[in-house]
Amino acid sequence: MRLRDIPITAWIGIFGIALALFCALFAPFIAPYGETEVVGAVWQEADAQFFFGLDNLGRDILSRLIYGTRTTLTVALCATVISFSLGIILSFIAAVSGGLIDAIFSRFNDLMMSIPTLIFALVVLAVLPQHLIVLILVMAILDSTRVYRLGRAVALDVAVMEFVEAAKLRGEGTAWIIFREILPNTLSPLLAEFGLRFAFAILFLSTLSFLGLGIQPPAADWGGMVKDNKDGIIFGVAAALVPGSAIAALAICVNLVVDWLLKRTSSLKGGRGDA
């Protein structure tokens, strides 16, 4: 694949993701002020000193937006990696084993998916201690049900192929078949799905933070920044629109890249983009 073959929409998505990663990695060095530092009056308008103005406590919105990028991306990425690892391993085991194991795993997954995700997360997070690890695990477990559904579908497509049947006849174990036969032949659609689940994790985390059960103050994250400054909209203060726009922009950038990956893998067997 040549660089000139990548469409402009994909380049826009790649640039947006790269910018977010840069902010996340170098937040302490590029942020003008500290994450919790009060530097002026409440909801001060944007000027030459404060590019996006100040928030409801007089903190620099640009600085908190940069620090919030690190928090949001870290939590969303960790949750997505865990959910994908759990969902793919269980779904591939179910697809290869079949029979009772497949039935038990699939019916339990159906049961979990029948519960509204947001309501279930709110109930669990309200009961459990408000800790970052707990938040990541709850997000990962809930999202792994969607990953399981896709993983089982693509694994079943590959599991009936001749080279997989030949591996079973040779006496290869389940782990060998999963990691040497099925996974390499489903990697492209799974990578595209990973991007979709990552975008969903960003939106889901922002929703939880907005409702008060995500990242806890004074740590900055985009959903929490919208929650903190939403009252300013009544008075014509646009402080809540800045992190809201960042959430939308990053989700769009991720989806632009994912759409490009899906188009490249659409001709592959098993390349379904079920979200």
UniProtKB/TrEMBL annotation:
Q: Name one Pfam family in it.
A: BPD_transp_1
Q: Which GO terms describe its cellular component?
A: plasma membrane
Ranges for domain ABC transmembrane type-1: 69-258
Task: State the annotated membrane topology for this chain.
Answer: Multi-pass membrane protein
- What InterPro entries has UniProt attached to this entry? BP-dependent_transpt_permease, MetI-like, MetI-like_sf
Localization of this protein: Cell membrane
Q: From what superkingdom does this record's organism come?
A: Bacteria
* UniProt KW Transmembrane keyword: yes
Tell me the Gene Ontology biological-process terms attached to this UniProt entry: transmembrane transport
- TM segments? 6-27, 73-98, 118-142, 194-213, 233-262
- Keyword set for this entry? Cell membrane, Membrane, Transmembrane, Transmembrane helix, Transport
For this chain, the family text in UniProt reads:
Belongs to the binding-protein-dependent transport system permease family.
PANTHER family noted in UniProt: OLIGOPEPTIDE TRANSPORT SYSTEM PERMEASE PROTEIN APPC (PTHR43386), PEPTIDE ABC TRANSPORTER PERMEASE PROTEIN (PTHR43386:SF25)
What is the name attached to this protein's record?
Answer: Peptide/nickel transport system permease protein
User: Which species expresses this protein natively?
Assistant: Neorhizobium alkalisoli
